[in-house]
Please model this.
Amino acid sequence: MTLLLFAVVVVCGAAFAFLNGFRDASASVALAVRTRALTPTVAVLLAALFNFAGAGLSAAFALEVSRSWITLPTGGNGLHILIACLLSAVLWGVYTWWRGIPASSTHALVGGLAGAGVASVLVGGSPVTGVDNSLLFQVVLPLLLSPVIAFAGSFLLVWPATWAARYTPPNVVNSRSRRIQATAAGAVAFGHGLQDGQRTAAVLVLALLAAGLSDGGSLPAWVPLLTAAMLTAGTLAGGWRISYTVGYKLTRIDPLRGFVAQMYSSLILLLGAIGLHWPISTTHTVTAAVLGAGTNQNFPATNRRLVIRILAFWVLTPAATAAAAFVLELALSPLARL
Model:
């Protein structure tokens, strides 16, 4: 039964990675398409390539994330906690995609873990240890701070960028900005692969530990390969509903502000993944950076009603997935006794 539950976790993890790429990675190139720095086809292929590279290299950080994140119960108890968590994150991801709302897959995963852990204790199972301090200081705070930092930094960086281009003809500024933005789109996709590849790989490592198939000292080669392949497949499938929201509906943005937002987003993602080992949401970071750069204009350019709706979904995401995972864990808990 343990091996069967482990196989279900792997399938759910693959579905989560696919949906992650489907929803998030295409949003990383939405601005490049909006400002005509890249065509949609080239943008998706570029995102898929760099997303695969980032996810493949994330193996170096996945073990660190799994060690510092949480500790699951062993056996069936830990495995069906992961199943409930992943299923809730996948269901919420499909719903937010259908609504065209850029919401964090990582927040959904965190909420699912918390909800399933509480349900496990209520039915007499083992708790998810380390969930309070670890989720607060290594997950929740970085995820809450990254949109604020992305918005403020992107807003402020528009001023030196426009000052540097003050004597340059607009067509030259736009041409140069588009070239830089094409590079920045690849950097954001690479950062997305590093960040979200870590999370999916870490979940699979936790499943290996719970099933007793690994001691946590090394990472099997199939874990990063599966993660990278599913993220890339999701990217190639192209969830353009969210890309349209970020690129066209959120704010009016020109090529200069577009390259500022994407360059700054890529720096935050890479610093968080490589330097700080913090899980930073690509969706939150890119959306906030786009909003910050677009807001710094001499005329109103932001769809405020849409911003409020997105913020409401950001707050609702961990609560909704926690509730769904709680119910799913209650339903799955009898499997631990089989």
